[in-house]
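Open question from group meeting: does this chain pack into something compact, or does most of it stay loose? Before anyone orders reagents, we agreed to write out a predicted structure and look at it together. Recording both the input and the output here so the notebook holds the full record.
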Amino acid sequence: MKQQIQLSDHFSYGRLIRFTLPSIGMMIFTSIYGVVDGFFVSNFAGKTPFAAVNLIMPFLMIMATVGFMFGTGGSAIIAKTLGEGDKEKANNHFSLFVYTSVILGMILATLGFIFIRPIAALLGAEGQLLEDSVLYARVILTALPFNILQYLFMSFVVTAEKPQLGFWTTVCAGVTNMVLDAVLVIILPQEYKLAGAAAATASSQTVAGLIPLVYFARKNSSLLRLGKARFDGRALLKACINGSSEFMSNVAMSLVGMLYNIQLMKYAGENGVAAYGVMMYVSLVFSGTFIGYSVGTAPIFGYHDGAKNYSELKNLLKKSIIMITVFGVAMVAFGELLATPLAKIFVSYDAKLMNLTVSGFRIYVFSFLFMGYAIFSSGFFTALNDGVTSAVISFFRTLVFQIAAVMLLPLVWGIDGVWISIVVAEIMAVVFSVMFMIIRRKKYHY
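C-alpha cells returned:
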C-alpha cells in the first residue's frame, strides 16, 4: 500500500500527478455528468428546453459561486495555518466557513426563487423559453445550499489531505445524476421531461454536498473536522478577499455567458444559443483539467508558503508550468479530432445546428492552448493569500478581455467573431498573467 502523500512532502512529477489526479478527476467528472444532463435534455426534451437550460445556467452558477469563494479563499488560510503548526485554529476556520456557506445558500435560494422570472425575461427569454427557464431554475434552486457545499468541499478535501474523498463523492453525485436523467427524462411525459432533468441535477448536488458534510462532522483521519466555531470576522473577510478571484471569475464567466447568448441570439437566433451550449458543456470537461490541477496544488503552495519553504515553491511552480503546457497542447489535438463526434452527441437531429456547432468548436478549441496559464496563475496567488493580485488577473481574463472581444470581433467576422473572441481573450490573459508573475517574483521568493 502506497504511503499517503502529505502537504509537507517534496513533490516530484509522479507525486504531483498522484496528489492532483483526484482533484482533476473530480472536476472532469463533474463536467461529464453535466454533459450527460445536456445530452438528455437536448435529445429527449427538445431544442427549446435545451436553450432554456443554457440561457438560465449562468445565473444559477453565480448563485453557487459563494462555495468557490469560501472554498478557495478559506482553503488558502487553512493551509497556511496548518503550515504554521496551529491545527486548532485551522479547524475553527474550517467550521466557520462551512456554516457561513450554508446560511448564505439558504438566503440566496430564497431570493433566487422569488426573482427568477424577471431575471430570465431580462436575459431575453419569452414565451415557452421563459416558462422553461423559470421551471428549470426553481427546481435547481431547492438544492442551492448543497450545491454551494459541493464547491466548498472541492477545495477543503484537498487541504485535509483527502483528495480521493472529493473524487469518489463526485462519482456518487455523477452516477445519481446520470441514472435519474435516464429514468426521469426518458420515461416522463414530454411536459415533465425538463423538470425531471432539473430534479436529477438537484439530487446530484445534494449528494455531493451531503457526503463530505457527514464525513467531516464525524471523527475522521483527515487534518480537519467540523465542530464548534468561534466567530472570526477577520478570517471571513480574508477568505472573501482571497477567494474574490474565484468568485469574480465565476460571476464574470456567467455574466459573459449571458452576453454571449445575447450576441448569439442577435447573429444566429436560438440555434446560436444551442450551439454555444454544446461548446460550454465540452469546454467544462477540458477546462476542468486546469481547474482541478489548480485546486489540487493550491494547498501545497499555501502550506509551503506558511512553512517558508521557498525552494519547494520554486520546484512546484516550474513543474506546474510544464504540466499545464502539455495539457494545453493535448487538449487542442483532442478537440480538433472530436469536434464532429461531440457535436453529433447533442444535435445530430438538426443539420444546420450541427454544422454551426462543429465550425464554431473548431475555432473555440484553440483557447485551450492558453486557458490553463491564467487559471493556474490566479489560483497560485490565491494559495499565497494574495487575493488582490488573483482577483485582478481573473477580472481582466473573464470580464474585461472577454467583453471587449465579444462586442468588437463579431462586427468584423459575424458569428465566427463570437468564437474567435474567446481565443483572443485567453491570449491576452496569458500576457497579463505573465506580467504579474514577474512583478511578484521577489515578494514570494519563487
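Observations to bring back to the group:
The chain has a mean pLDDT of 86.
The radius of gyration is 21 Å.
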